[in-house]
Amino acid sequence: MSDRVTVSKTYKLYLGGAFPRSESGRTYPVADAHGRFLANAAQASRKDLREAVVAARAAFGKWSGATAYNRGQVLYRVAELLEGRREQFAAEVAAGEGVPGKRAQSLVDAAIDRWVWYAGWTDKLATVLGAANPVAGPYFSFSVPEPTGVVGVLAPQGSSLLGLVSVVAPVLAVGATAVVVASRDRPLPAVTLTEVLATSDVPGGVVNLLTGHTAELAPWLAAHADVNALDLTGADADQRVELEKAAAGTVKRVLRVPTSEPEWTDQPDIGRLRALVETKTVWHPMGI
Amino acid sequence: MTWEYAPAPESRAIANLKPSYRMFVDGEFVEGKGEPLKSVNPATEEVLAEVSTASQADVDHAVKVARRAYDKVWGRMPGTERAKYIFRIARMIAERARELAVLESLDNGKPIKESRDTDVPTAAAHFFYHAGWADKLGYAGLGPDPRPLGVAGQVIPWNFPLLMAAWKIAPALACGNTVVLKPAETTPLTALVLAEIIQQAELPPGVVNILPGAGDVGAQLVNHPGIDKVAFTGSTEVGKIIQGSLAGTGKKLTLELGGKAANVVFDDAPLDQAVEGIVNGIFFNQGHVCCAGSRLLVQESIAEELLDKLRKRVSTLRVGDPLDKNTDVGAINSRAQLDKIHELVAAGEQEGAHRWTSACPLPDKGFFFAPTVFADVTQSMRIAQEEIFGPVLSVLTFRTPDEAVAKANNTPYGLSAGVWTEKGSRILWMANRLRAGVVWANTFNRFDPTAPFGGYQESGFGREGGRTGLEAYLDV
Description:
The complex is a heterodimer. Chain A has helices at 46-65, 68-84, 86-97, 101-119, 125-129, 162-174, 188-199, 214-223, 240-248, 271-275, and strands at 27-31, 37-42, 131-133, 139-147, 150-154, 177-181, 207-210, 229-231, 253-254, 277-285. Chain A is α/β, with parallel strands linked by helices. Chain A has one domain (27-285): Aldehyde Dehydrogenase, Chain A, domain 1. Chain A is globular and about 80 Å long. Chain A starts with 26 loop residues before the first strand and ends with a strand. Chain B folds into two domains: 12-257 and 456-473, Aldehyde Dehydrogenase, Chain A, domain 1, CATH 3.40.605.10; 262-441, Aldehyde Dehydrogenase, Chain A, domain 2, CATH 3.40.309.10. Chain B has a seven-stranded mixed beta sheet with strand order 13-14-15-12-11-16-17, sandwiched between helices. A six-stranded mixed beta sheet of chain B has the order 8-7-6-9-10-18, with helices on both faces. In chain B, helix 3 (97-108) crosses helix 4 (112-133), helix 4 (112-133) packs parallel to helix 5 and helix 9 (271-283) crosses helix 10. The longest helix of chain B has 22 residues, at 112-133. Classes of the chains: A alpha/beta, B alpha/beta. Chains A and B meet through strand 4, helix 9 and strand 10 of A and helix 8, helix 14, strand 17, strand 18 and helix 15 of B.
């Protein structure tokens, strides 16, 4: 048995529900925490990124239009599938982040629990953030949170699964769609996560994942006119101002995130959910 | 039948107009070191008053006193006490409502019936509403004890001068912040009367500071390192500059920017009601409204009938003296704005849209523009894409609800939208799909302090009003 040659995986991009290589044909080597070669990952290009935005926009109508209950079930289903891959994720996290197996396992467990936490938010958000507005006139006025649109996410560079889940799950929970740039040096758990998403009921295009050089892709993402919000968690510190400036060109919502990665195991509040929704107020006259 | 109206002007004396106004810093009215500006009555082109403006040193000083007031007094004052000050302001605005309305119409050019019935009462309501929040912030859903941000730098436009000041100042104070506010260059007067009210309400010195000036003062204010929060209402062009200039500073920013709202009329709409709504949507405040219903999308089968009714109704609008209680459309706020309207209207004609302009008489003096409706507008025309900010309506048609949604959303903006139909399910279907922060169904241009207002996309971010609006002024 032990002399069997294993079948190793080609790590690819995840665009519109498919797994293409980069159109540029580029790859880059990914090493473990000790510098040993793990795999070649696709090195996405500007064109891949634009394709990802197109796919995310195309998927937005259906995903944002799904009922909150349905979205909750679909996201919960993802957690079920994550659970089945616990060991694979733990191995990838341990290798990439250089943490002991037990610690890696607990990070994976926390990531799955986080996913469940966000899955449960889909059908509570309108209750918690919405309102019936007691306006001074014969009108019925109500306000509801709606997904902001396509969200560009620079995933955390350090926490390759728990951090990633903590920034992607809220995007899906509010009904937005995502273009995610994975951790540059630790992209493998992210790619595996897309394999889970592909076999779940999350429609293709709702999450699009690019692996590659964050600093190369980030400016295009920040300036793209069809991206509505931007999460710079994984941005290079010295690139952040430039990215925020680029985002201003189309009045993107830039999430207020700390400059260094937070302790991802801490229980989040609903700040990310709040930052990813728009409040819509509707008025109608009352009368007979 | 033609109605003849006798003039019914409100007395200008009620405005208590003074020959000069000074800026308000640290609880006192002081001379600014900037070049004084002259505020002009756009209906007569006469100078109303001279107003001192802020220099860079004045901005520095105002930010400093606002910081001190925040650290020493306002930021640590219990909410119950803050509330009472803000309630006082609300009451005193109501007490001086008539004076403020006349002054607003003089300085801005809007009809007295609008300043009297909308601007001033809504401004008072905004303070009253937010006063009550000051000691209840823990119930806003933003955590048990949400903290203020510090000093807010606020820049407001000329279309609703007093009301915008209220929208900015009231939530900031309720949440425990102090304020440095810059009113618009062409309409600084009512904000300075509000300063008088704030002084009479005995608000601690430095809590609210009002610095008149042009865009350069605004730029100095929002870029000041002593500011923790920036709130801006104005054009998308300037909003982008501000957002870019704040990149990397970590300052909290809210933007309420331009719009190109679609007002969608279906074939089953109550047409007479819809006509009133369309008129209100685009000719209210001379169309100087960021959420104006400037793109009429009408279902093809009723387009002709609706346009006939609309032109007939619009030709009855009375354009003229803003102080006349019968005036429907007042003066365009400035020469520059009038020029911009002329330019875009010329572009509409050049690009082949069919222009109709009301034959109403216009005053000889002042900045006026007759209500105008463009038919046969296509989506790529400038008058369908750009904010005109004047009494000019662009009319497009659609056949199916899907087409209406696609056309309504075909703009980088997303501030407001209107829907007219008798079918309830269609209203909710449309409301769901329109990418806009406010959707008015079978009504238009309704505002209330309890109802969050603000845009999607390039119409800005953050909300004003309601529980949602508090987030803009809290560290959450």
